[in-house]
Specification:
8 helices; about 200 residues; about 0% strand; Serine Threonine Protein Phosphatase 5, Tetratricopeptide repeat; mainly alpha; two-stranded antiparallel sheet; globular
Amino acid sequence: MAELDTGFFVRWLTAAAAAVEREADTLTELDSAIGDADHGVNMRRGFTAVTAALAEKPPASPGAALGLAGRTLVSKVGGASGPLYGTLLRRTGRELGDAATVSREDLARALGVGVEAVAALGGAAEGDKTMLDALLPAVRALPRSFAAARQAASEGAVATVPMRARRGRASYLGDRSIGHEDPGAASSLLLVSALEQTAGRGDG
């Protein structure tokens, strides 16, 4: 498939922002069951700021686009979402370096580093009912195709419903966290779905 250039990454982040805007109320509803009821609001604020930052200072490379988005999220988003998503995008961007174009395999490797950084920051692992339950399967599937990554993220998000939360605010609820989809996994699915959308249906 074609290499992914800076424009691709800007379109991806813009599509993710549109998805967050569209689903913000749903994310907040999910978070109201097991969190602070602010995930949708925070994600909307952050990705609106990302869109503005990308327009104000167009990045010179895919890595720069992700780095700018990550820094913006850290500075604009309260709670855990800003640091976690900011770390994901910044570390992924740093791993891509200054390359003008990257392959899907390059992106998969870089995202893997970004997800590892998120796991270290949050002290979480797969199965803890967090965003990692969508992101880790997506990273493993991404070398196959964008569609496979989106499907894996979707299945991972759904799989959080019967889980008992072991990290984050939801963990304070104990067994009461069972039966609810993790809002971080849901928003991570939006990010991966936007990636597939940007690449085009059936691409890769």
